[in-house]
């Protein structure tokens, strides 16, 4: 019965995701990137270039065809899942979304199994799993295919922990097999995403609080088991930090916060997360690489937040044995959240997928609290069925709001429109909207969003670190095709900001050719050709030399283009014009 209830809850909540397309980083994984389309790239999983650096996705330095893992850290398990997904579904977003929903259901089923075992209360486990399954906070990780790492990490995390808990049910070789599978799942989880590092601490706390008698009797044996987990963790950290280091932190982001400011900023993030968890109707699409201003958290709210955290820590320290399940929920919620608390700044500090693991602890605590409230209300003659009413109302609110949030992820356009409405001081959504409208030929709307990006960008340290201003100026130039001088000004600004970004030279050459400024067009085209052999660059060079009536040079580059691009239909159109020009030039010399 529980299986069908949980499956129904997941499907009812996230079925709208099946009609959604790719959003955000999904394009970089499955559409605009060839890495996962070619099984030969599997060998790169053990290569240093597996890690995606900023230079891999920077428009100024992309060497033509994109082919990178999109993994900013060493996550080979996630990468293998992307290879399998592309093999199964290609670029069919329906299949990828179905897979994410299925993985989310696996997580929910594991949550139910774990909490039922820990609480020895099947009803409590079912209600907590339902709350977890239907909360709109999880819409981000379910709807965005490229966030598969969070789904996989939590599946392996919960599997490893559940297998460890079950070890006490067995003796001899079966116990060792169970422990071996637990360690194997732990290793897979680590190489799916790095937030799995907290599992050994959760295991030790479980033994101390929920399994104290067995913990005391076999402390030496447990110590050896703990050592195995920490050895696996040590190996992973060596690979993560030394063999395949994440270079992005050094390369693109260095937040100039003082420790006090950083603590306040992290508290602000936690406050925003708690608000969305307790008030599901406040959940929305969060902008990428966005840090809410610390000023948005008032002094009173800050004091309340730190007071609650202090009370939680003191409660666990003093009443762990008296209230083991509550203490475990608090410990899980705090420890699982710690890797993403942004105490050490990250390029993307604010994201709902960071709550996918801590949500288990939050859901457990909320269900325990609401159960106590229901017991209290049940004593009243007016509310004999308080528990059923409370949980039905809560699940109804969750499912309704999750259904709405799912629609925001229909496309980049709908997602970014929601972002700029709810977070008008976030820069990146304006750039995405500008590109979307530019590709649709709506230049006026595109200009508005690009100009808004340039206005808002100074408020976003992460956006500044990504150096996207040059790219926005380039796109703005393309919005002013009806005003060539303004377009040229934006192209030149893009080149001033990033001299190594040669793409604006294409647009400059095109404009100069239309204005019959052949020398300027030639200079731009030669700079393109210096970076890479490009068919369009050859065409612009030949057209420039034809305009300058330098027929010998035009013939030289015509021959070079035909050699480098045999069989093309673009360059041969100049053949007759060059031949005629050469003949006229030679006859003119003969007459002289």
- Could you tell me how far the N terminus lies from the C terminus, measured between alpha carbons in angstroms? 100 Å
Q: How many runs of DSSP E, i.e. beta strands? A: 0
Derived structural class: mainly alpha
On the 0-100 scale, what is the average pLDDT? 86
Helix count equals: 29
Unreliable stretches (pLDDT < 50, length at least 5) are none
Radius of gyration: 29 Å
What can be said about the biggest beta sheet?
A: none
Shape: elongated
Q: What portion of residues is helical?
A: 55-70%
Percent strand = under 5%
- Total number of distinct structural domains: 2
Q: What order do the SSEs take from the amino end to the carboxyl end, as H and E?
A: HHHHHHHHHHHHHHHHHHHHHHHHHHHHH
Describe the structure.
This protein has two domains: 13-407, no CATH class; 517-592. It contains 29 helices and no strands. α1 (2-14) runs parallel beside α6. It is 68% helix and 0% strand. With 592 residues, it is mainly alpha-helical.
Features:
mainly alpha; 29 helices; 2 domains; 592 residues; single chain
Protein topology:
Layout: H1 2-14, H2 26-31, H3 54-57, H4 76-89, H5 93-119, H6 122-134, H7 139-143, H8 148-166, H9 173-190, H10 199-209, H11 212-217, H12 219-243, H13 248-252, H14 259-278, H15 299-319, H16 324-337, H17 359-378, H18 386-408, H19 412-422, H20 428-439, H21 443-456, H22 461-465, H23 469-479, H24 484-497, H25 504-514, H26 518-531, H27 535-547, H28 551-564, H29 575-591
Helix pairs in contact: 1-5, 1-6, 1-18, 4-5, 5-6, 5-8, 6-17, 6-18, 8-9, 9-12, 10-16, 14-15, 15-16, 16-17, 17-18, 19-20, 20-21, 20-23, 21-23, 23-24, 24-25, 25-26, 25-27, 26-27, 27-28, 28-29
């Amino acid at each position: 019965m529980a299986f069908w209830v949980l499956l129904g809850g997941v499907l009812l909540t996230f079925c709208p995701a099946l009609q959604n397309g790719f959003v955000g980083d999904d394009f970089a994984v499955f559409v605009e990137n060839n890495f996962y389309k070619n099984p030969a790239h599997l060998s790169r999983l053990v290569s240093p270039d597996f890690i995606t650096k900023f230079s891999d996705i920077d428009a100024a330095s992309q060497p033509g065809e994109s082919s990178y893992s999109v993994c900013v850290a060493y996550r080979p398990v996630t990468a293998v899942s992307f290879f399998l997904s592309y093999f199964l579904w290609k670029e069919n977003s329906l299949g990828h979304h179905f897979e994410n929903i299925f993985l989310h259901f696996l997580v929910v089923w594991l949550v139910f199994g774990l909490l039922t075992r820990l609480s020895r209360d099947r009803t409590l486990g079912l209600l907590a799993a339902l709350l977890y399954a239907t909360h709109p906070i999880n819409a981000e990780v379910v709807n965005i295919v490229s966030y598969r790492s969070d789904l996989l990490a939590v599946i392996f995390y919960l599997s490893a922990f559940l297998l460890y808990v079950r070890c006490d049910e067995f003796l001899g070789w079966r116990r060792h097999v169970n422990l071996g599978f637990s360690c194997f799942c732990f290793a897979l989880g680590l190489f799916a995403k790095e937030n799995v590092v907290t599992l050994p601490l959760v295991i030790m706390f479980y033994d101390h609080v929920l399994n104290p008698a067995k913990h005391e009797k076999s402390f030496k044996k447990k110590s050896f088991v703990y050592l195995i987990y920490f050895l696996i963790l040590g190996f992973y950290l060596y690979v993560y930090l030394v063999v395949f280091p994440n270079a992005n932190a050094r390369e693109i982001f260095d937040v100039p916060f003082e420790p006090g400011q950083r603590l306040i900023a992290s508290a602000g993030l936690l406050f925003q997360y708690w608000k969305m968890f307790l008030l599901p109707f406040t959940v929305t699409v969060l902008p990428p690489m966005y840090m809410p201003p610390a000023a948005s958290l008032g002094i009173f709210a800050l004091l309340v937040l730190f007071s609650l955290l202090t009370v939680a820590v003191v409660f666990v320290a003093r009443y762990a044995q008296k209230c083991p399940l509550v203490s475990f929920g608090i410990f899980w919620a705090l420890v699982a959240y710690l890797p993403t608390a942004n105490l050490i700044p990250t390029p993307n500090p604010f994201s709902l997928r960071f709550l996918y693991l801590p949500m288990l602890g939050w859901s457990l605590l909320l269900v325990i609290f609401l159960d106590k409230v229901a017991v209290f209300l049940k004593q009243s003659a007016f509310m004999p069925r308080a528990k059923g009413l409370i949980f039905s109302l809560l699940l109804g609110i969750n499912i309704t709001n999750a259904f709405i949030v799912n629609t925001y992820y229909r496309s980049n356009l709908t997602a970014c429109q929601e972002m700029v409405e709810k977070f008008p001081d976030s820069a990146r959504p304006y750039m995405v909207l500008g590109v979307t409208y530019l590709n649709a030929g709506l230049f006026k709307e595109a200009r508005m969003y690009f100009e808004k990006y340039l206005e808002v960008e100074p408020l976003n340290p992460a956006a500044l670190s990504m150096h996207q201003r040059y790219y926005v100026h380039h796109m703005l130039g393309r919005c002013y095709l009806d005003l060539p001088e303004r377009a040229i000004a934006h192209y030149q600004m893009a080149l001033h900001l990033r001299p190594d970004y040669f793409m604006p030279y294409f647009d400059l050459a095109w404009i100069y050719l239309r204005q019959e400024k052949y020398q300027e067009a030639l200079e731009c085209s030669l700079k393109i050709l210096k970076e890479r052999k490009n068919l369009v660059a050859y065409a612009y060079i030949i057209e420039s030399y034809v305009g300058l009536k330098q027929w010998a040079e035009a013939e030289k580059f015509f021959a070079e283009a035909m050699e480098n691009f045999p069989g093309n239909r673009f360059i041969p159109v100049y053949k007759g014009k060059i031949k005629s020009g050469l003949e006229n030039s030679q006859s003119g010399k003969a007459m002289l």
